[in-house]
Structure formats: C-alpha cells, structure tokens
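Might you be able to review the protein record set out just below?
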Amino acid sequence: MRYTRIVRGDDGGSVFEDDRIPLDERHVADGVPPMAVGGLPSAAGVLFLRSAEFDSAPHPAPRRQWVVMLRGTIEVEVTDGGRRRFGPGDMVFVDDTTGKGHVTTGIGPAPFEALFIPV
C-alpha cells in the first residue's frame, strides 16, 4: 500500500517522500476470504475531524500522525514548492513537526473529513 510522507527537509522546510506499508495476505476470520493486511502504528488513539474549512497558514504538524482522508479533497504544499492532492482513501504520514511546516488547502465542496492517528 503506497502512501505519502511529509517530512522536515535538511533546510528546515518540508518535502514529500513516497513510502509503502507492507501488506500480507491473511485469513482474518472463518468464513471470510483472505485479505491484504498491514499495520498502522498508533500511540494515542484515533481522532475524527470534520471541518467546513481545511485552509491553513504555514505550520509544522502538531505531532507525528497519519491522516486518512475520508471525505473531500485537500491540497498540501511543502516548502520546496511541491503540491499534492489527497482525497477519500488517501493516506499521508505527517512528520514535519519542526521547521517551516506545510500549507493545507481544502479543494472543492466541504465538509472535509479525516482520521488523525497519532504515532
């Protein structure tokens, strides 16, 4: 499973990195066909977010966390000028907790919904 990481760059800015979560085919329950399963480590539970706006000023992430988009589309711009859009089903690992951070903008109609999973 592919996902995007947002990390602090050597210059104190933020950059995108592409990464993968290994998936293993597992039998999870009797009567259920085998499924692709992979772990998402979490340290402090899961937060559900719903917002009419997702626009932000430049900011570092408040904590290392997974962001799993459920509804709506956001665009994230990192300080090297890169921009990526994330919509329902996309996963981003936000790891730029220091430095200049990134900018998040809501694209299209609200609400925006996401799961935040602190690591």
